[in-house]
Amino acid sequence: MASASRNFDEYRLNAVVNRDPYFVIHTLSDERLPPELRRPGSVQRWEREKVLGKGTFGTVWLEVLRSGKASGREVRAVKRIQKKSMRDKRELAAMTDFSRRKYLHTGSFVEFFGWFEDSENIYIAMEYFPHGTLSDYIGQGIPENEVRKITGQLLVGLALMHEHDYTHRDLKPDNVFIDTPGPEWSVKIGDFGVSKYVNKGMTALRTGTGTPLYEAPEIQGDVIQENEEEYEEYTNIVDMWSLSCVVFEMSARTVLFPRWPLDYKKLCWGLWYPDKPHTISQKGWDFITKLLVPDPAGRLSAVAALKHEWITSRDPQPLTGEVVQGPAAAAPPPKKGPGLDRVRQSGSSGKVQAANDYDNDALTALSAKPPQVISSSGEHGDGNLSASLQRRTVIRRISHSNNRDNVSADDTHQRQPAPPKAEPLPNKVTLRNPKAIVGSLSGAETDIDDEAFRLDLPFSIKVYGHSSSTLFIIKNGMICLDQAPSANAWIIRTDHQELPFREGLHPYCEGLPPYCLFPYWTYLLIKRGMPHGIYYEIEGSAPKRLLKIEYYVTRYHVMEYYFHFLVILEEARPNIVTFRYYDVPDNGRMGTVGVQGPDKHKMFSFNQPKIRRGVQLVFNTTPNVNDVQVSEFQPY
Known about the structure:
Blueprint: E1 15-19, E2 22-27, E3 43-55, E4 58-67, E5 75-82, H1 90-98, H2 101-104, E6 112-117, E7 121-126, H3 135-138, H4 144-163, E8 166-167, E9 176-180, E10 186-189, E11 196-197, H5 217-220, H6 238-252, H7 262-268, H8 282-291, H9 302-306, H10 309-312, E12 343-344, E13 352-353, H11 360-368, H12 409-414, E14 436-438, E15 446-457, E16 464-465, E17 471-473, E18 479-481, E19 524-527, E20 531-539, E21 545-553, E22 560-563, E23 566-573, E24 576-582, E25 590-593, E26 602-605, E27 615-620, E28 627-632
Antiparallel strand pairs: 1-2, 2-3, 3-4, 4-5, 5-7, 6-7, 8-11, 9-10, 12-13, 14-20, 15-21, 16-23, 17-18, 19-22, 20-21, 23-24, 24-27, 25-26, 27-28
């Protein structure tokens, strides 16, 4: 395969881009001919239909052919990348390479139709997938025999990439495109925005720009060698770690690290390993564990994984029944990863801690103090940690506090670091009448005092809130919240439907009143010390509302956290604001809410039984009152 620095002119489309309104004219025949002598349909006009997505490396639009011929292809996805943000043409390199005829027959990659440009942007035209991505199907449950089929197709694509010196580096469900949905399943690998080509003679990569939840430990600096030095480079084997995360997610209907980065760190340090999902066979679980190895030297390659018996066996004894979720499912005995049998404590106590113990304080301390390497000796039962990892030991040691001997296993699993008490925010003037301030949703320490939006609403509102959200105003004038401050109004979980969002159109909206502004979303990332989240400043009386949004800084004990819960603003009047918290499925995360003032915050876990009946919080921010009343209510 040619070098990534090839000439791309053979894939360049002759195009005239009109920006306002946007449309593209492609001339497919020789321009030396006058228009009346050209072939019929040789001039195409493409127009934008809607935004399909937006990320770090560009915006993807759906375009529709309005005139001309396109060989039966009347829609396409076009990715726009600003030239000033392009460090190189790595995505073009990957797409041109794997769109060549000898690779097209494999069906492994998103088809590339060509590229064009204007003075400021590069446009990449590619196949459109009306069935969406793998992430759209995971929540529905995929039987194991179908998971196996999808995995095999991904392995073929990865093996092909690795054979030709490419590393994808961002394999995740959002980048697996569905050509044919289940039960037949035909999937393709796409989004080569962070893929990397390695020249012959080179063996390693040094930069990481993928998605942390699926990134291999060596990219994030969480693997150390026996000489106690961290890896500074990595190979295409990083894609196999990502694949293990994807296969687990398909099997369990949940991400591999719901308490990321804590569970992730503990796995890398040999102190935790995920339980085998009920919905996958032992052969399938063995396949995952062969890829989910912190040491890259012990991880299966794509070629080796294609030979695993879960992939090759005609009778893998897959589990194809209903996916069992929730507390009704019987929990299996705790499992540990291969070779991660036990850890002997250092110090005088000499106690052995189970590999799945949970100690947030110790993990927090590890962030500041580099852990040490435990050497491997013996196979099992000799009092030292035995590791089946090849060539390098990557397990790190932490010390446990002695007072944990009296903590039950259930308490250990659920325990989370308590947030510090909220301190008065500096903008105390906003506490004066007649304004009502509700903030400090995560024990905010600092108010950045940056008014993001101000909107006069002529109607009563119900707003989905979150401990870390951004609000956007879309074209119909209503409010939508998205996933993170770095995202945009289109990266949302509504399939880009216009609001108002009525009940019944989304499973998490069942039972909620109509005209709630937004459905439910999950895995919102919060970073300590970064400006995230919102608080509400509301004045006026019903039904008219004046809503102003400002940012605050979270201050959790850990670097990053994921939360997922649902809050609806029920009512607002001067100095008094009512929130209702609804029961939703989650993983036991703790969320805090509070008024701006000292010692005023409340914490609730959405695994607590009372939340299932609904909790109502009424904040009274009248000066010298500044309190909150908690009561229960029956959901709609």
